[in-house]
Amino acid sequence: MSIIYKYKLSLLLYVSLCLLFLSFYWTNVPTEGVKSSAPSSMSFRFGYFCQHEGEVGEWIKQFGDISFFAAPHQLLQRHPEAQTFQLYPIFDGSTTENRFNEAYPHVPAETLPGYGKSFYTVSNGNARLFFLNADRLSDAGDRQLEWIHQTVDESKPTFTFAWLSEDPKLPEIWNAFRAAGINAVFIRDSVYTLKLAVEQMPSNYVPAEYEGWGVWDLSKLMEAPFITVIEANDEALFIKAENKQGQVLDQLEQDAQNLASWNLASLEKKQEISLVGIQSLWRYHPGSEAIKFAIPEGIDVTGEGPIIETSHTETVQLPAYDWRSPEYDDSSWETGRAPLGHTNNRERQGYVQTSLEAVKSPTYYFRKSFELDSDPGDLSGLYLHIAYEDGYVVYLNGQEISRDAIRTGLLTESSLAFPNEFSFFRRIDLKAHLNKLVKGPNIIAVEVHRSHPASPNLFFDLALSIESN
């Protein structure tokens, strides 16, 4: 064999080996025996400045992987360097709606006619964000709630969030948030989430005073400043508190499947209908000897037995002159919108819509009529939401259904309640008293007592709702 032939053969073998090696490289032949699973793709990632001590603009630059941010208007006024088109403001009442409209040209205008830019919505990936006007969110009939519900029904986002500057303090509003499919509500330093969807709880996460919600108090974090980061993939939603270095200080995780099934499993099954709404109009009268009540035969006035028979099958018929009776004529009483009361507490003064005179008697009486279109036998639940200070008794069609912070036995206009902390919309299950409802007109009567004749605080508001099968 010639030297030239051997050379050509060696060269051909070398080239073949090179081509074989390169083919392995080009075709990405796996070098490990188990295929690695790629992480779920991130659907969105955005940030929220609740209250901040550092330069917000520098933080925005630091978190360059976040598409956009949310922050209260008042915070943005302190940090003009942060006012960019990737930052969405929250109307917080610190300026007029007209000035708010002019300050942010990039914010969608007239999402809801008459609200300007104080209420608007944006979408990011499979998330929908609602920025609400808390000043106008006064009752469950506010048009913002109807618009949210309609938009979510039409677009069907996987995740839905709401920002507002103040807690509306109305259970009906929170029920409406829940019914609309909102997963999380951000109010200043607090994050409210649906409890049943939470897979991982952060520190300082406790049940909220509203049914179905839990609240995370970010103000109790040990490190500040921080940014709240909201992100999600196909499987989970994460709400994280991160410092400027991107280190997670604490986090909350929600399961996406639980979120998707929440409404179907717990909301569509039963419907809660309001009979008496928060902030309704009430007839009221201060404690006086002119307010008469009957003492039915056999009733123990000493307190060892109930004043009104509370049996589920027997009732006590009250005469028409008894202020608790459905037949009582209250046309001479004053009319006012709840909450009603008087207080020296500045925060609660803002809630009172009808100021009551601080009379010598520690008692005020309230009455309201409402209609029930359904047959009580077709109902599955009855719920009372009541805000009060100090003690109360509630009667439905003349029969007692609830009392707190006041003794049993005979009560008069001079009876005192027990000293009691202010209770804001406590929810009470009254299913056992469904039999006291009647189809057609009904009357609810309430007496609220202070703990001392000179006490500066008396507060009352009430809602009553039913649950259908």
CATH superfamily of the largest domain: Metallo-dependent phosphatases
Estimated share of beta-strand residues:
25-35%
- What is the CATH architecture descriptor of the largest domain? 4-Layer Sandwich
Under CATH at level 1, the class of the largest domain stands as Alpha Beta
Detail the poorly predicted runs.
Answer: 3-9, 15-40, 264-269, 304-313
CATH topology of the largest domain: Purple Acid Phosphatase, chain A, domain 2
Q: Count all strands and give the number.
A: 26
Main structural class: alpha+beta
- Main sheet attributes: strand count, strand direction, barrel closure: 7 strands, mixed
Gap between N and C termini: 98 Å
| Estimated helix fraction | 10-25%
Query: From the alpha-carbon coordinates, what is the Rg to the nearest angstrom?
Result: 31 Å
Outline: elongated
What is the topology, as strand order, of the major beta sheet?
Answer: 3-2-1-12-13-14-9
- Alpha plus pi helix count: 8
Mean pLDDT, to the nearest integer, reads 82
Overall tally of structural domains: 2
Topology:
Elements: H1 3-26, E1 44-48, H2 56-62, E2 69-72, H3 73-78, E3 87-90, H4 97-103, E4 120-124, E5 127-131, H5 143-155, E6 159-164, H6 171-180, E7 184-187, E8 190-194, E9 198-200, E10 205-207, E11 213-217, E12 227-232, E13 236-242, E14 248-255, H7 256-267, E15 271-276, E16 281-286, E17 334-337, E18 340-342, H8 346-349, E19 354-355, E20 363-372, E21 379-389, E22 391-396, E23 399-404, E24 423-429, E25 440-449, E26 458-468
Parallel strand pairs: 1-2, 2-3, 5-6, 6-7, 18-19
Antiparallel strand pairs: 1-12, 4-5, 7-8, 8-11, 9-14, 10-11, 12-13, 13-14, 15-26, 16-17, 16-20, 18-26, 20-25, 21-24, 21-26, 22-23, 22-25
Helix pairs in contact: 5-6
